[in-house]
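Supplementary notes for students who missed Thursday's class. We covered one full example, reproduced here. Read the sequence, then the structure, then the short commentary at the end.
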Amino acid sequence: MNIKKHIPNLITLLNLFCGCIAVVYVSEAIQTNDSSNYLLAFYFVCLGIFLDFFDGFFARLFNVSSPLGLQLDSLADMVTSGVVPGYVMYSMFANSGHEMGTNAFIPFLGFIITLGSCYRLANFNIDTRQTDSFIGLPTPANALFILSLPLVIKFSDSLVILEILTNQWILLGITLCSAYILNAEIPLFALKIKKFNLKDNLMQVFFLSISIILVLLLHYTAIPLIIIFYVLLSVVNNKFFKK
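Structure (token representation):
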């Protein structure tokens, strides 16, 4: 029995397990109104994303990549990076003001993010252009963006930020933009470093340096800013620097 061929799939299933745990913590946050559960959900999604990176790494290392592994990877990501952020946005709508009215259906608009994530994951499996870089925002990055929003509310003392992130119209705008950017025809530069020299990795080094500075200065508030910065930097790179 070749144990090596099962290791990547086991890691993928652990990613799915982390996503399931995150769903439970989001549910706990809604039921108890305890924002610390959002933090736990965020940590488990981060762990799931970490595992998501290493399943592919070990599949390539052991030369055991398979169609089954590809499908498992997408199904696991669908929960960790699709269902969880949609559920978080659902909870944010539910805990927000009533600018759009008091219709009980409104919070379910948050699951537009889940639909957008599902479409992206399915499309990614058949899009041969995304082997070395991305077209549209990857679902893990989008999940981190959405899951960071309740943490920004929790750890920020700014009343302006609180008003912004509890306004239903703004939440709807974030939801629609999220679903769009996941599937937009926008090339995003790869974060992988293939050649160990500054010239070929200047964009990556610049991005990572700014990201570290933002995290040190702003902590959790830095996360959505970093994702936005990544997209904007890619757009600028495509327009002015990409050959």
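Commentary. The domain at 3-189 is CATH 1.20.120.1760 (Four Helix Bundle (Hemerythrin (Met), subunit A)). The beta strands are 134-135, 187-188. If anything here is unclear, bring it to office hours.
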